Amino acid sequence: MARNGNDDMDGVEKRLDAIINILLRQTKLQEGSSRAHIALLYSIGFSDSEIARVLGKTRGYVSSELALIRKAKKND
Questions:
Q1: Residues 20, 54: Cα–Cα separation, whole Å
Q2: Residue 19: is its pLDDT beyond 90?
């Protein structure tokens, strides 16, 4: 049975998410908070839904953390 292109892309996407997650754990942010990971991924262009998928968090959680990050930057 032949797989279609969407199945292949879903598999690639899941593997890339896993790789990113592993790399985040090996960075200086390893012992950092989820907020630090979220800030990093957002700064390199990930959307809130992509960040949620990579970190295994809900989109709502990521969105609220991004709001706090933006608020902190605004107050700096």
A1: 7
A2: no
